[in-house]
Structure formats: C-alpha cells, structure tokens
Amino acid sequence: MTRTLYASLLRLHPQAFRRQFAPEMLWIFDEAHVSEGAWILLFDLLASLCRQWLLRTGFWKVTAAIIGAALQMLPALNVFARSRSLSIRPMAETPVEAQGFAVIVMCMISLVILLVVSTVLWATRVSRLKALANRRSRCRLNSAA
Fold it and tell me: I want to staple 69 with a disulfide (CB 3.0 to 4.6 A). Which of 108, 112, 122, 125 is the partner?
C-alpha cells in the first residue's frame, strides 16, 4: 500500500522531473523502504514535491509575492487586534472606527491581489521574452550555417 501511495505522490511531480527521475525513485523506494522506513521516504517525497513545484516551475515568484503582500497586511491586522480588545462602542481614543477599518482591509486585500497578479504577469512576460530570444538566436545560427 505504501508503494502505491509513493507512486501516486510521484505522479504529482512536474512532468520533466517525472520523466527523468521517477523510475529511479521507485527503484530506491523498493530497495530502501524496509531498512529506512516507508514514512521517511514518503516525507522526503513530499518535500521533493514542494521543492520541484516551487523552484522549477516558477511558483516561487507567486509564493514570494503572497508572502510579501501578507507582510504588508501585518499593520492592519495589528490595528484590528487592538480594536477588538476595546469596547464595542466607538470611543474618542479608538484609532480606527469599524467602517474605516473595513475600508483599510479592503484596500489591503486589493493591493495583495494586484501585487500577485502583476508578479505573475511579469514573470510570464519575462519567460516569453526569453523563449522568443532563444528562438531568434537559433534561427540566426541556422541561417548563418
């Protein structure tokens, strides 16, 4: 059963990685699951899965944008936490009223969405430009030869 689970998780890797390493990884699992333990190998496979999707496919850019946007929201969350500890009725010393806080949160969420979308679009554009430049250089090399 653990081999089936291992093979299923291996299928979740990017296709290029699977094509190159899947048979060898299954062979290693078959050889080492008794001595090393199947759960350690499954944990290693899950770490590999995260690493391959984040680093090789460019999802790290989206992840970095989301983390950066979340860090920008920390001040608003701090204000929200402080406002929850105060009484319900608005007081003169309350820094932000409930409606004002809702506007701030909506603006922050919009900023997060804008940052993520712009980062994804930028990364896509850069990768397309690189591919186009590679094709042009190949065409020049072929026409020169």
Answer: 112
